[in-house]
Amino acid sequence: MERYDVAIIGAGMSGIAAGIRLAHFGKKVCIFERHYAPGGLNSFYAKDGRKYDVGLHAMTNFVKPGVKRAPLNRILRQLRIAREDLMLCEQRRSRVAFPGVDLCFNNEFAFFESEIAKTFPKQIDGFRKLVEAIQAFDDSVFDYPYQSAREVVRGCVSDPLLEDMIFCPLMYYGSSTEDDMDFGQFVVMFKSIFLEGFARPLEGIRNIIRLLLKRYKEAGGIRKMNNGVAKIAIAGGKVERLVLDSGEEIEADVVLSSVGLPETFDLCAPGLESSAEKNAGRLAFTETISVFKKQPDDFGWGEDAIVFFNARDRFAYRQAEDAVDLTSGEICVPNNFDYGDDQLAEGVVRVTCLANHDTWTSYADEEYVEAKEQWRPRICAAAREFMPDSSLDFDSDCIAQDMFTPKTVVRYTGRKRGAIYGAPQKSKDGTTPVSNLFICGTDQGFLGIVGSMLSGIAMANTHALR
Ligand SMILES: Cc1cc2nc3c(=O)[nH]c(=O)nc-3n(C[C@H](O)[C@H](O)[C@H](O)COP(=O)(O)OP(=O)(O)OC[C@H]3O[C@@H](n4cnc5c(N)ncnc54)[C@H](O)[C@@H]3O)c2cc1C
User: Fold this and answer.
1) Where on the phi/psi map is residue 267: left (φ > 0), alpha (ψ -120 to 50), or beta?
2) 422 within ligand 1 shell (Cβ under 6 A)
3) Ligand 1 pocket member 454 (CB < 6 A)
4) Best mutation site among 13, 42, 213 for ligand 1 pocket (most ligand atoms within 8 Å of CB)
């Protein structure tokens, strides 16, 4: 039976980052991935000869070089990656759009602060107090106790509209819990979006994944694709061996799993004391991708990279009651990053809304296709309400389109209920009841591209290198 120092389950961003770190330190490490493509929730694919990203809208946490403790610079250092190799291009601008009120932001926090001072003059002192509380919070420790972020924000900001406008982007980009979030998670998300910022490589996520896999291979890491882990056999409170989808068995001193906490517990035999189904996340999403011959500048949409929108009096971030909740969402225009003299060949608009996993998975094949056809124009119409007026027609001007639902996420990543932000309960220190089995990535509590890589590195350092 093949034996490894460390076996990693899943070749998503956290699994690959953990693998690079371990391989650099001479560990015999192997990543087992069930899918044929690497990247997990942040992968890529081609359809009718056109390339699409799965997850990348905007890479959060963008900072300039030299900001020492910033997550982006920490991962570059720890993975020994040169910053210029990521080829990151900054956003032009993004926007939080509520009925009749807009708050714009870019990668300079002072601009966002000035927008709040202009739109909510009576709240600016409270907002600055909130920023002080965020900066004073030590997010480097794993074991901070739960604190309601809503309560902390309300202690500083008294206008519910501003409160909701702050929460909307943070929840859409990383909350596994409905309506409120752990203040620690709020701090991580606030820093990653408002205090740091958005960037993207022209070529999309392919560039980043290729770079990471090259590093991993050069450092001596092994990768097995199309061969997932079917069972984690436990004996005496330890992982005894892993049984792969191929039937092959392997041993490892340490196992790092990036597939999610309930998903990992489900793999364990005998089963672990935690009803995995009960603990799975409830928040799932659907996304439409529309491709146009024209550039967004040509139809007057040339400013915003990302728009977080909400059409209700109060923003509700909950499992959709219908198949899709059209009252809020996120619009991404990947053309609106500063690519210098370059530009994407075609105009792209992606619209993401909350969706209901049970509804989408209940459809028979034909009904599923019909439901997608029915919901796509409605999703695009909901987003258009928050985009500048233009003659663009999402149907007649669109030259290609695709749409994913919670069913797609389950199929390609194995995430229970299509919950891309994972389970509401996280394992902040990465430990499980099994002494040599650890969690990294989304369900350790760090997500997004940078967050999940940081998690992979931190869990590798803590549980396999120290
Ligand atoms: C539509 C969408 C948009 C997003 N937009 C952004 C964005 O703009 N910016 C941003 O920073 N983040 C974004 N994200 C979030 C980001 O993609 C994730 O937070 C991050 O990629 C999670 O990485 P991970 O390693 O924790 O998990 P995953 O990516 O889920 O990796 C887990 C891997 O394990 C594999 N696996 C599952 N079961 C098994 C098994 N039994 N055996 C072996 N392998 C298995 C899966 O196939 C997967 O490859 C987005 C995600 C989605 C879906």
Assistant:
1) alpha
2) no
3) no
4) 42
Residue linked to tokens 């300039």: 64
Residues 122-165 have pLDDT tens digits of: 999 999 999 999 999 998 877 788 999 999 999 999 999 999 99
pTM here is: 0.96
3-state secondary structure of 412: helix
Tell whether the model's pLDDT for residue 275 goes beyond 70.
no
> pLDDT averaged over the chain?
95
Q: What sign has the CA pseudo-torsion 319, 321, 324, 330? A: negative
Distance CA 49, CA 37 (A): 17
271 φ, ψ to 5°? -60, 155
d(CA 94, CA 108): 12
Residue 420 CB less than 6 A away from ligand 1: yes
What angle in degrees, to the nearest 10, is found between the helix axes of 13-24 and 448-460? Answer: 40
Q: Is the CB of 440 under 6 A from ligand 1?
A: no
Residues 6 or more apart whose CB falls under 8 angstroms from that of 66 comprise 73
What tokens does 239 get?
């992982």
**Cβ-Cβ contacts under 8 Å for 129 (sequence gap 6 or more):** 156
Q: Would you say the CB of residue 57 lies under 6 angstroms from ligand 1?
A: yes
What residue has token string 């998670």? 185
Ligand 1 center to 40 CA (angstroms): 4
Regarding the beta carbon of 197 and ligand 1, being less than 6 Å apart is answered no
Query: Phi and psi at residue 132, in whole multiples of 5°?
Result: -60, -40
Distance CA 155, CA 362 (A): 43
Pairing state between β 249-257 and 437-439 = parallel
Domain ranges, ordered by start, for the chain: 2-56+204-279+423-465, 88-196, 282-413
* pLDDT, tens digit, 9 for 90 and up, residues 196-252: 999 999 999 999 999 999 999 999 999 999 999 999 999 999 999 999 999 999 999
CA pair distance 181, 174, nearest whole angstrom:
10
Residue 258 to residue 264: CA distance in whole angstroms: 8
Residue 148 host element (H or E): none
Average pLDDT over residues 171-199: 97
- How open is the CA angle 324-330-336, to the nearest 5 degrees? 145
Distance (Å) from CA 119 to ligand 1 centroid: 36
Chain-centre distance for alpha carbon 354: 14
User: Alpha-carbon distance 435 to 39, whole Å?
Assistant: 27
Residue 274 has pLDDT above 90, yes or no: no
Domain 2-56+204-279+423-465 has CATH 3.40.50.10860: no
Output phi, psi for 201, to 5 deg: -80, 145
Give the C-alpha separation, 290 to 334, whole Å: 11
